[in-house]
Specification:
The protein has about 800 residues and is mainly beta. The protein has a single domain (about 50-809), classed as Beta Barrel (Maltoporin, Chain A). About 10% of the residues lie in helices and about 45% in strands. It contains eleven helices and 35 strands. The strands form five sheets. The chain has a 22-stranded antiparallel β-barrel. Strands 1-6-7-4-5 form a five-stranded mixed sheet. The chain has a four-stranded mixed sheet with strand order 21-22-26-25. The relative contact order is 0.14.
């Protein structure tokens, strides 16, 4: 489907909804909008008029609603995230928010376990994630493979369980001047549940019932179950104190959508390609209480332990596998053990008319790597089968002071200002010698390193840190009854690259009570992450379906510098948006157009092959790698698009309540400039080939439209959702190697029995019509592993059936 046809379809659908008065989005009342929720949290969150939901993201003015805001903000309730088959927060968020996409990569090392989400098609690390308004920490894992978000170290949204959430606010606008680094595409604010009493528990069980049609194979799959158990409890103390405890346990069996391997006789499936096996424990606590009449204390803490096992490419039988004790070949498993901590404590209160918020937060993420059921060919017959590969770790301390005050100037004037200090640390710890090197007694086989994922060597070990400080001011003035104007400015200083400044102008004019215009202009930035600056490793990287041993080196290392690397600088952006808000009765419609121009964008270079020249071969020879890469600034790109969200809610005495939603995103990204090599090598290597450029331009859908009907009558309810995804290109090094997903529509259904208290039951199906992306052609799948493109924005697992049973009290 062309963009013109999609725009026409979206426009016609929105006009139809406006004429019929039928569209709405599910949202739970926020604590600010509905204080009784804290006193009676056992209520089942029911759809409410989203336009009346009070927001705290994108504005520091108290009492601002979503439809009164100067920037586009989506408010997504915890209940809407839970009314679907997936138990992954990022996948659930992508289902209900058209601007967010969540590909499910496979056969890509730790990226299989720590999957990044994208907003408006930009890099995962160009979206800032907050928890209760406090900056979250990124994952220690750096996505170095050929997937969407290549080169990013992003926040892992799946470290927060949906049971712990009251709602999520998604600011679809540049906000670096308001919140600092990373907020180029926007901000995702996870608002934790606050409850003084009540609780609930549920168990969700699901499995796949699907027909897998790869290019060379057709088979039925029934099974591969997923079990998730969740519980939460609200505890009250004192006059207004609360402690809300939430927990989640997930156990997921792996899926396999690999094609047959035509290299073996008889032809059969030798690989494992799909979701990894996961066992995960997560706990969260959110608490708050008043200390005096004007001072309150708040705190939250979360911990997750995740054990994930994904598969590397199979090693078919040969002399080396036989010597290593695998006469029939083997499939190495990449085992990541992730531990994640989120925590914060703060004081807020009113001092002589100034609202003051002082907070301190700490976050830490560690990823331990193991390679299982594998071999190090350099050890010959004495090879171990399981290897400890080492650890990557990232931690972050943030201290912030925010002050706001309202003045009786114009209609009203809200002034906010504050400071923030941040300390970040990054560390790579080496694995055991057998995971990366030769035996102490000398090599008896082939190349060193665990097959599938080689360990970190002592040469890769690093420990780095940096400090940054910022100061900001944010002013919103209600000049007249109809004119709202805002201005924000922020200055930041980093110990590693220096200072930067950003600003934002915004305005809104309510032409009538039912029609408003709004627009913003801002500059943004993203500091290069410590992971991008200092990560180094040797690993197999898939190129055109074939794994190649590749070294990733810091840009200022001897190898990086020789290949053209320079010290990394911040990415910068200029954001423009203009939109409209229309509302009448239970109907509202928002349409926002945007343009984001990025410069000095950081990218992970092409895998520069040793065959490029004798000089490159000599440079890489000491590292026993066939290719090398590094990070570099210099990409320029422009993202342009339109977001539209229309909804209507109606109650009937006999037929119940209907909430109808139609939301869409049309997005186009154009890479306008790529850096050229500064290396003295002859010839100078190409830093960004077509596959890297097309991944940025076509790696996420250019069109995504979601339509939802949510019906409830007393304790009964039903939900139907259809999501259309435009074509996505998983590019190769040549056009012939490109893998396209095709235009696809995914249908989800759920029936539920629910209420304020008592038994809860839900039965549903995700991907009702068992839709897959296009199968990977045999010409682009020589090993048979890559049955479907892993760029697919809806995955490639097929129809999923589930049942959810629980109890509220």
């Amino acid at each position: 489907m062309t963009k013109g046809r999609t725009i026409a379809l979206l426009g016609a659908s929105l006009l139809t909804l406006a004429a019929t008065g039928a569209v709405a989005q599910t949202v739970a009342p926020s604590p600010e909008a509905a204080p009784p929720t804290q006193d009676d949290p056992a209520q089942t969150a029911t759809p409410a008029d989203e336009g009346d939901a009070i927001i705290v993201t994108g504005t520091r003015t108290a009492g601002r609603t979503r439809l009164d805001s100067v920037s586009p903000v989506d408010v997504l309730s915890g209940s809407s995230l839970q009314r679907q088959g997936t138990t992954e927060l990022a996948a659930a968020l992508a289902t209900v928010a058209p601007s967010i996409n969540f590909p499910r990569p496979s056969a890509n090392d730790a990226t299989d376990a720590i999957r990044p989400a994208t907003l408006r098609g930009l890099a995962p690390d160009q979206t800032l994630v907050l928890i209760n308004g406090i900056r979250g920490h990124t994952s220690a894992n750096l996505n170095t493979n050929g997937t969407v978000g290549r080169g990013s170290a992003a926040v892992d949204l799946n470290t927060v369980p949906t049971a712990a959430l009251d709602r999520i606010e998604v600011l679809r606008d540049g906000a670096s001047a308001q919140y600092g680094s990373d907020a180029i595409a926007g901000v995702v604010n996870l608002r934790l549940r606050e409850a003084r009493q009540g609780g609930g528990a549920s168990v969700t069980y699901g499995f796949y019932d699907t027909q897998v049609d790869t290019a060379n194979n057709r088979r039925s799959v029934t099974g591969e179950p997923v079990v998730t158990a969740t519980a939460w409890q609200g505890i009250g103390f004192g006059a207004d104190g609360f402690v809300t405890v939430s927990g989640e346990y997930t156990r997921r069996q792996p899926t396999n959508r690999a094609d047959i391997d035509r290299r073996v006789t008889p032809n059969r499936v030798t690989g494992r390609y799909g979701d990894p096996a996961v066992e995960q424990y997560t706990g969260f606590v959110n608490a708050g209480t008043s200390l005096t009449d004007n001072v309150s204390l708040y705190a939250f803490g979360g911990y997750q332990d995740r054990d994930t096992r994904s598969a590397a490419f199979p090693r078919n039988a040969n002399a080396q596998t036989t010597l290593a004790g695998y006469p029939n070949g083997f499939v190495p498993l990449i085992n990541t053990k992730t531990k994640d901590i989120n925590s914060a404590v703060g004081l807020r209160g009113d001092f002589s008319g100034y609202n003051v918020d002082l907070s301190f937060s700490y976050g830490r993420n560690t990823v331990d790597f193991r390679t299982l059921d594998s071999a190090n060919y350099a050890f010959g017959a004495a090879t171990p089968r399981n290897f400890y590969d080492g650890q990557v770790a990232y931690d972050q301390y943030v201290a912030g002071l925010d002050v706001t005050r309202r003045f009786d100037v114009f209609q009203s004037l809200n002034v906010a200002f504050g400071i923030e200090g941040r300390r970040e640390g990054y560390k790579i710890s080496p694995g055991e010698q057998a995971s990366y090197g030769y035996p102490a007694t000398g090599a008896t086989g082939g190349a060193p390193g665990a097959q599938g994922f080689g360990g970190f060597s002592p040469a890769n070990a690093t420990e780095r840190g940096r400090r940054s400080g910022s100061i900001y001011a944010d002013v919103e003035a209600q000049v007249t009854d109809r004119l709202l104007v805002g201005i924000a400015a922020r200055g930041e200083h980093y110990s590693d690259f220096g200072s930067t400044a950003t600003g934002k102008l915004s305005a809104r004019y309510d032409v009538t009570d039912w029609f408003a215009l709004r627009g913003t202009a801002s500059t943004g930035f993203r500091a290069p992450s410590l992971q991008q600056q200092y990560f180094t490793q040797i690993a197999s990287v898939v190129t055109n379906g074939v794994p190649i041993l590749t070294g990733t080196f810091p840009s200022v290392s001897p190898v990086g510098s020789a290949l053209g690397g320079l010290p990394l600088e911040p990415e910068r952006s200029t954001n423009l948006s203009i939109g409209t808000v229309i509302r009448s009765g239970g109907f509202d419609l928002t349409i926002d157009a945007y343009r984001i121009r990025l410069r000095d964008q950081i990218g992970l270079s092409e895998n520069i092959q040793a065959t490029a020249s004798p000089q490159v071969a000599a440079l890489l020879a000491p590292y026993n790698v066939s290719a090398a890469r590094f990070f570099i600034n210099g990409l320029r790109s422009t993202a342009k698009g339109i977001d539209a969200v229309a909804h209507y809610r109606t109650r009937t005495a006999a037929a119940g309540t209907f909430d109808l939603t139609l939301a869409g995103n049309i997005n186009a990204i154009d890479v306008t400039s790529v850096p050229t090599s500064t290396a003295t090598l002859d010839p100078a290597p190409t830093l960004f080939a077509r596959s890297r450029i097309l991944t940025l331009e076509q790696g996420t859908p250019g069109e995504k439209v979601t339509g939802t009907i949510d019906w409830s009558l007393d304790r009964l309810g039903a939900l139907a959702r259809v999501t259309y995804y435009g074509n996505v290109n998983q590019p190769g090094t040549t056009p012939a190697a490109d893998v396209l997903t095709g235009d696809r529509a995914i249908t989800d259904l759920e029936l539920r029995y629910t209420g304020d208290r008592g038994a809860q039951l839900g039965i549903g199906v995700s991907n009702l019509f068992d839709v897959y992306p296009r199968a990977t052609a045999s010409a682009n799948n020589s090993t048979g592993v890559l049955g479907f493109p892993y760029f697919s924005p809806f995955g490639f697992n097929g129809r999923y059936l589930y049942v959810r049973a629980g109890l509220n009290w």
